[in-house]
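Reading group handout, session on sequence-to-structure problems. Before we discuss, look at one worked example. The prompt was deliberately terse, the way you'd type it at a terminal:

> structure Cytochrome c oxidase subunit 2

The input record follows.
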Amino acid sequence: MTTWLNMSLQDGASPIMEQLVFFHDHVLMIMLMITTTVSYMMITLIRNKQTSRFMLEGQMIETTWTIAPAIILVFIAMPSLRLLYLMDEVHNPSLTLKAVGHQWYWSYEYSDFTKLEFDSYMIPQEEQQESTFRLLDTDNRIVLPMNSPIRMIVTAADVLHSWTIPSLGVKTDATPGRLNQTSFSISRPGILYGQCSEICGANHSLLPITIESVPAKYFINWVSKMSE
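And the output record:
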């Protein structure tokens, strides 16, 4: 989760998020090189008086500054397109979870099991314990198995919402009357936090999302307990 004065991205909890962080660093290095080069050239032009007549026309430099940006864009576009295809690809899911956004709580349905559905509300501030986080913890957490491909179906019952978990690299709009689909796989155990990322009304900040990632055997025990 995000911590105080954290200027970087959250630690990736899924393979896609790790790739997104690598791509962010890759583009940032290209931007740094471009900024350094342009700044050097601008300072050089300001501090020096150009009196050479060859500066009025130069076919070689014009060709260079036309081809160089195109090559740079290719170095950015190729990993970007690869990531887009990876994020769109839906493998054979081990589990399907449906999230329905309401004003102002989330409802969850485990489609592979019968009678396994619940509502998830934010824990009020006066009921919080020392181990919980303000505006982030919920009374009913989503429990998901780690290292398993999960299909996420998102919709809304009233207005636009957005189901977002930054550490998983997942952000899917919840639109009334429409089912949006995404997929992810959690690579480590732990508790992951997210919030609604679409302005959905007065209590927009009261829609936290809490995922508890556990090994498969603990998930099976949880399902058995919830289905009783």
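Points for discussion. First: Strands lie at 95-102, 105-110, 117-120, 142-145, 150-156, 161-165, 170-174, 180-184, 190-196, 208-214. Second: Residues 15-47 form the longest helix (33 residues).
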